[in-house]
Amino acid sequence: MGDKKIQETTEAQIAVHWQEEEYYYPSTKFIGQANLTDPEVFDRFSLDNFPQCYVEFAEMLTWYKYWDEVLDTSDAPCWKWFKGGKLNASYNCIDRHLKDNKNKTAIHFVPELEEERVDHITYQELYVRVNEFAALLRDFAGLKRGDRVTIHMPMSAELPITMLACARLGVIHSVVFGGFSASACADRIIDSNSRVLISMDAYYRSGNLLNHKVNADEAVELAAKEGQVVDKVLVWQRYPGKYSSETPMVDGRDYFVNEVVKDYYGSRIEPEQMLSEDPLFLMYTSGTTGKPKGCQHSTGGYLSYVTAMSKYIQDIHPEDVYWCMADIGWITGHSFIVYGPLALCASTVIYEGVPTYPDAGRSWRIAQELDVNIFHTAPTAIRALRKIGPDEPAKYEYHFKHMTTVGEPIEPEVWKWYESAVGKGEAIIVDTWWQTETGGFLCSTVPGIKPMKPGSAGPGVPGIHPIILDDNGDEVTQPGIAGNICIQNPWPGCFQTIWGDRDRFVDTYFGRYCKNPESKDWRDWPYLAGDAATKSADGYYRILGRIDDVINVSGHRLGTKEIESASLVVEEVAEAAVVPVAHDIKGKEPDLYVSLKPGYEASDEIAQKISDAICEQIGKIAKPRKVWLVPDMPKTRSGKIMRRVLGAISNKGDVGNVMTLANPEVVETIRTMVQG
Ligand code: PRX
Question: Which of 464, 496, 543, 650 is spaced 20 to 30 A from 637 at the CA atom?
Answer without folding.
Answer: 650
